[in-house]
Amino acid sequence: MTTKTTLVNLPSWLRSNIGNASEISRVQKIVKQRNIHTICEEGKCPNRGECYSRGTATFLLMGNVCTRSCAFCQVDKGHSPMTLDENEPQKVAEAVKLLGLRYVVLTSVARDDLKDGGASWFVKVMTTVRIMNPDTLIEVLTPDFGTGKNALQQQRESIKTIVEANPACYNHNLETVERLQNPVRRGAKYDRSLRVLATVKELNPRIPTKSGLMLGLGETKEEIITTLKDLRKIECDRITIGQYLRPSLEHLPVQKYWTPEEFDELGKIAESLGFNHVRSGALVRSSYHAGEWRMENGEWRINN
Description:
Number of helices: 11
CATH superfamily: Aldolase class I
CATH class: Alpha Beta
Mean pLDDT: 84
Low-confidence stretches: 1-8
Number of domains: 1
Strand content: 15-25%
CATH topology: TIM Barrel
CATH architecture: Alpha-Beta Barrel
Radius of gyration: 18 Å
Structural class: alpha/beta
Number of strands: 12
Strand order of the largest sheet: 1-2-5-6-7-8-9-10
Helix content: 25-40%
Order of helices and strands: HHEHHEEEHEHEHEHHEHEHEEE
Distance between the termini: 44 Å
């Protein structure tokens, strides 16, 4: 009943078709058979059918239980996350092969229980995927790797581990503006997240960096623009901007539904600030149209 009421109250521009049903069913079968996870399915992403049909999917590594408890996210939380599945790299690589994916995004739950936050596991999966799928590009969407003893040093070492594996893009989401970080992203910090993307550029300026914002949590237009400027100061290349949708009554309520016109305006502002790849719209998510890029003569270019 609650879900039905929520859907009825959504603005018209948020009532979209869930996507290509046959593609969704095919991916679900392959993923379920291997007991692996995609954030597309865990988060019931409204664009998953479109992304699957375009040859893109986002795999959720290291289980589906997160050590943090962000107030917007519907991924399970707990202090006893799953034991790492030693076969997960092979299973993900097989799924990529069977699905014929040209572009893969690897993300994960936060694993603050692991010394390196799971950085070496990202690399293990990347390596295995590439052996079986040498032409598939891999984007990473990582946690901040910033807790525990010697947090600054460990964060840098974890990021360095992944950067040396040379992903096609390194993504880390700020999610929201600085003022709202504590209530929205419990356990995360604005400066720490900016430092992730800044460190990537310090270690390898040629790797494109990317971040994402979700609107509707009480932020102002001015705060959004400030956040975009902060990202450009550290040479973040790509940005996604989408609408926060409340997963359940236990999550933060939506404060505002931003209109398509407002998303268009913010997208144009982002482009004017120098982002070379902007996706701004109510249903845009972190991996939306992620695979639009190709390497040509040593440079990243957008596919036409």
